[in-house]
Design a protein that fits this description.
- The structure is a single chain.
- By secondary structure, the protein is of the alpha/beta class.
- It has 2 domains: about 120 residues, Response regulator (Rossmann fold, 3-Layer(aba) Sandwich); about 100 residues, Arc Repressor Mutant, subunit A, CATH 1.10.10.
- The protein contains 8 helices and 11 strands.
- The chain is elongated, with a radius of gyration of 18 Å.
- It starts with a strand and ends with a strand.
Length: about 220
């Protein structure tokens, strides 16, 4: 799950990014509406968290640009203003939710989960054969047994099961699971796939993680 945070208060933005990464999200951070617009044109996001009062392009204008360009990613607006008219203005601009500062992190996290459910399906629990991934609880079960994953392993598995049956290229995986500032080894995706195979498929007759030669990887039953 990939998020964009656009907030001109660097402490707030960086703190949010740190907490969200701990919840297995891939997070890109910027501090102006102008930079946010550049990010949005260069990548696909699952949810955008935008401050209304930003330099360059304000949050309301940015939402309008997104919707005008056909970008459908859910938007959660952050603002210090609590007037009903301000909230209505934000929702009318195309935002999906509105959170007034100061806010509790747990509330923001819960609202993000609601937004992802709303756009993808009615539940955040995904299954394939005897594999279950509960995105709300960040839990993974195979044949009823809990599987412990690292933050990055979980993010990769969640992305794959949300797109089960679809071949995902390395570029798509990198874009959705790693953020723009990733500077690791070029074979890191292969390393994590191997690690997931050991934890998810080892000891099971039915293998779920498959390599499609010259294309990428897919999560499905059978070959």
């Amino acid at each position: 799950m990939r998020l964009l945070i656009a907030e001109d208060d660097r402490l707030t933005a960086d703190t949010l990014a740190k907490r969200l990464r701990e919840e297995h999200y891939a997070v890109d951070v910027c501090y102006s509406g102008t930079d946010a617009w550049d990010y949005l044109r260069g990548a696909e996001y699952d949810v955008c968290v935008l401050d209304i009062m930003m330099p360059g392009i304000d949050g309301l204008t940015l939402v309008g640009r997104m919707r005008g360009a056909g970008m459908q990613a859910p938007v959660l607006l952050l603002t210090a203003r609590d007037a009903v008219s301000d909230r209505v203005q934000g929702l009318n601009a195309g935002a999906d939710d509105y959170l007034v500062k100061p806010f509790a992190y747990d509330e923001l996290s819960a609202r993000l989960r609601v937004l992802t459910r709303r756009t993808r399906q009615t539940t955040n629990c995904f299954t394939l054969a005897d594999l279950t991934v509960d995105a709300d609880r960040r839990s993974v079960l195979r044949a009823g047994e809990a599987i412990a994953l690292t933050s990055r392993e979980y993010a990769l598995l969640e992305y794959m099961i949300r797109n089960k049956g679809h071949v995902l290229t390395r570029g798509q995986i990198l874009e959705h699971v790693w953020s723009y500032d990733y500077e690791g080894a070029s074979n890191m995706i292969d390393v994590y796939i191997r690690s997931l195979r050991r934890k998810i498929d080892e000891g099971h007759a039915v293998k779920l993680i498959h390599t499609v030669r010259y294309a990428g990887y897919v999560l499905r039953e059978g070959t």
